Amino acid sequence: MQVLKQFWRQITVMLIFIGLVIGFVVLLVTNNTATVNIANVNIRSGPGMSYAIEDATSKGTKVHIMKRKNNWLYVRYADHKFGWIASWLVNEHNSQLTKTTKISEATIVLDPGHGGSDSGALSSKGKMEKTYTLRVAKAVAKKLRAAGAHVVLTRDSDKYVGLSARPAIANKLHADAFISFHFDSSPEKNTASGITTYYYHKSTSLALAKALNNNVSTLPIPSKGTDFGDFLVIRDNSRPAVLMELGYINDKSDFKTISSKKYPQEVAHAVYAGLSTYFANQ
Q: Which protein family is named in the record (predicted)?
């Protein structure tokens, strides 16, 4: 007891030091681990798509980040294996989804489908889908920015953007929502009509899809509801992500609405209302 009294200060300092070291190690490990969020992710020999595929890992695999280069991570996985993996295909444990509760706090990525050499679907008179997806995205962006949101477009002009680059933007920015705009097309013209809101990852994106779908009922084209959709831009997306087919471009009635000057504004109001509801319920 006498010894404890004599050295209590030293013991206290040592215990505090040990606690700080343990806390630092835990923080270091947490900030340098990640979980693969996509099925069958390739492990490459270097930081880029041009490098050889050396292995593959499955969804849910935990990896330890050793170093970074551009948007690639050099990781250790399965205890003793090493390789490069794309950063947008993992959830880093220090960048989990945040609970944004209003649009003014949100980072939102809008994706006008197609562009450049990729025209998308065609109307019965040869009008290109890419033209109308950009019009809608710009109108939505203007509406959301006016409300204080940080909005990023995957393209803001008639240029080609690869499919994989689109979700990569949302993943890199840790976006609170990703919305890809498209117009549907049926095998035969004038045989289908309606708006569909697609999601891929139910756990992160179904709530967003439902909130947006509930508000497109105000649009002149009828809603067909929400549905699962295996589209790369939402499949390879770790953020809340949906793809909206805002009518059939090769349907005469739908296209009359799609090509009208007021439709982009109407979509903007519907998307704004849907996002407001979505964030309020977080």
A: Belongs to the N-acetylmuramoyl-L-alanine amidase 3 family.
Class of the CATH-defined domain 103-280: alpha beta
Question: What is the CATH topology of the domain spanning 32-92?
Answer: SH3 type barrels. (2.30.30)
The predicted-structure confidence for 4-54, as pLDDT tens digits, reads as follows 556 566 666 676 666 555 544 444 444 588 888 777 889 999 988 789 999
Residues 6+ apart with CB under 8 A from 88: 71, 167, 168, 171, 172, 236, 238
Distant-in-sequence, close-in-space partners of 268: CB < 8 Å, separation ≥ 6: 136, 139, 140, 142, 143, 144
Domain boundaries, the chain: 32-92, 103-280
Q: How far apart are CA 265 and CA 136, in angstroms?
A: 8
Predicted model pTM: 0.71
Q: DSSP character for 89?
A: G
Please give the Cα distance from 211 to 200 (Å, whole number).
15
Q: Phi and psi of 200, rounded to 5°? A: -120, -55
| Rounded Cα–Cα distance for residues 110 and 144 (Å) | 10
**Which amino acid is present at 32?**
N
Q: How far, in Å, CA of 126 to CA of 216, rounded?
A: 26
User: Would you give the distance in Å from CA 227 to the centre of its chain?
Assistant: 17
